[in-house]
Amino acid sequence: MENANIPARYRFQFLSTIDLGESNHDPDLSFIVAHDWANELVHSWADPSFVPQGFYLWGGTGSGKTLLACVILNELIFRYGVKCKYAKVNKDFLSAIRDTYQTDSETHGQERFIEREFANVDVLVIDDFGVQKESEFNNRKLYDLIDSRYEQEKITLLTSNHPLDEWRERGQGRIYSRLMEMTKEIQLKCPDYRMKFTPERV
Ligand SMILES: Nc1ncnc2c1ncn2[C@@H]1O[C@H](COP(=O)(O)OP(=O)(O)OP(=O)(O)O)[C@@H](O)[C@H]1O
Ligand SMILES: [Mg+2]
């Protein structure tokens, strides 16, 4: 759990703690579909005949993407002791790699080590995929990560505000092609859950 880097807000959240509409919040059907998908992944994990797949979960802000991704990590860690990791694409992955080039950084020279850590963990969440700047460096580092996880058949859970199709033309389509095979694309169409706690303005 300590190595998983799950943000405090989403730690100790489980399938059973998610609001599925029992309270006054009424989630969109798309949220139920995504929840069912997460439920199946978690409960079938130990079944040798089950072939797990990652997801590409996308939708508007506050629709519950980060929550669902972290719930899967929490469940897999607590039920099966699976090695999991959470990373925001910029802050936790791309910036961590860039830091290794700085001579005064604690992680100076450890680029390969960090990349291997992300490539080898059993289940990786890449949160906010698509917020990173379009650059040759970013595309190459993400391609290397995704290709390595693809080849090792590791599970990758991506969240984004943009549909997967936007990656068709980016990075020569090589990231897109792998993600199409590694993940199931699910769109969340729910309203912003954060607004539930905001008093209505008149
Ligand atoms: N169905 C739900 N049940 C309980 N809490 C929820 C639900 N959906 C969202 N939340 C809560 O609402 C807040 C926003 O959800 P979350 O951070 O997952 O949104 P997001 O889709 O990742 O948004 P963004 O695109 O802005 O990152 C979080 O505090 C989350 O725990
Ligand atoms: Mg989020």
UniProtKB/TrEMBL annotation:
Residues 51-181 form the AAA+ ATPase domain. It comes from the Bacteria. Pfam families: IstB_IS21 (PF01695). InterPro entries: AAA+_ATPase, IstB_ATP-bd, P-loop_NTPase. PANTHER family: ATP-BINDING PROTEIN RV3427C IN INSERTION SEQUENCE-RELATED, CHROMOSOMAL REPLICATION INITIATOR PROTEIN DNAA. This is AAA+ ATPase domain-containing protein. It comes from Leptospira kobayashii.
